[in-house]
Structures are given as structure tokens and as C-alpha cells.
Fold this protein.
Amino acid sequence: PKERLLATVVRHQGFRLGILPADGQLALPVEGGRNVGAALQANVFERLQMASLEAELVTVDIFDTLATRAFLTPAAARDHLAWRLQRRFGVEGFAGRREEAEATLRARLGRDPALSEIHERLALQIDHPDLDATSLADIEREHERALLQPRAGVLAAFQKLGAQPLTVLSDMYLSQEDMRAVLPTGVTSAIGRWWISCETGRRKDSLDTWKQMAQEQGRAD
């Protein structure tokens, strides 16, 4: 439509584009800002429905999407695990050591390392008689299992949408086997396909991942 050329012309001339609010204020909200209120008023199902219109494949993340921890950030959950290890075994600096081990292995392997790989490296560094790689990994799995809760509203919305079983795409050190062990049953039962970076070598923040997925689904165009 010709009226849409107005925005193109305005930007081409170096001017700022905005929409004055209906209440008469002389203010230019960021582009799309006028739609924020309407978007937030929609419930989870309606938002998912709008986001997935005409989609042939919908992928979702797991953590903070289908399940949540009892902490606002992964770092806080890791600090809590470190506190438990310090109290029970006298292990100092676990959170920093684990972060370093994961980063080092990611650089070396060229992919996200799995939990077992991380703790094989950690066990050598900690060198505690009661903490080998297996026991360290088991403690972290137990910790995750205790913290994780299903996001009932999101799961119900996907079920209403008819999108189950879900395809999950997660950048994570927990393998599919680990995920099944730590996630609530209501989450695992909703998932039909698992694409996890420590197993596939693909991350969501890589453009190649999406190109490869499109090719595999016959949508390379």
C-alpha cells in the first residue's frame, strides 16, 4: 500500500519515525510501543496462537519456558549448589571452578559440554575422597530435580494449541537422559523431540543451526 511508503521516505531522509499516542501527548514511543499494552493483555494461549500462525514447526526452550527453578538466575542456583557442597564436603569455590570447567571444555570441544564431561574435569580439580565425577554429577542432578517446577500455564496453553508433543531446542549441558531424570513428569511427558546442544553441537544463537533445521524440514528456501 502507498501509505506505507511514508515510513520509508521518512527514514530515507534521516528523520525519526514514531506514532503520537491517542491521548494527545507529544511523545514518540519506540516503534511498536503502542502495541505493548494489547500484547500483554492477551493470555498465554492467545500469544502462542498469534506467534505460531501458519508455522509448520514450533520449537521451544525448556528452562524458563516449560520449567522454572526456585531462583531467578542460573548463577544463583549454582551458588546454592556450591553452598551445599561447602557445608557437606568442605569444597571451596565450586561455582567458579564449575564455570571455568564448562567454558574450557566448550572451547576445546567446539560445542557445549555434557554434565558428565564437566564433572570429570571438576573431580580432578577438587580431588576429594568422597567426590568422584559420578557422585558430583549425581549431586547436581539431585539439586536440579529439587529446584525445578513445571510452568503449568505454558504447558496448558501448548496443549490447548494442539502443539504437543513438543520439539524442544535447548542450549544446555544436561543430556536428554539427564533431562528426563531431573524435569517434572508433566514437562517430560509433553516433549516428543529433544534437540540439546551438548548432544547435537547446535546452539540457538548460531545462524547455521536454523539453516540446518530448515534444510532437514525441507524448508531450505
The longest strand covers residues 191-196. Residues 74-89 form the longest helix (16 residues).
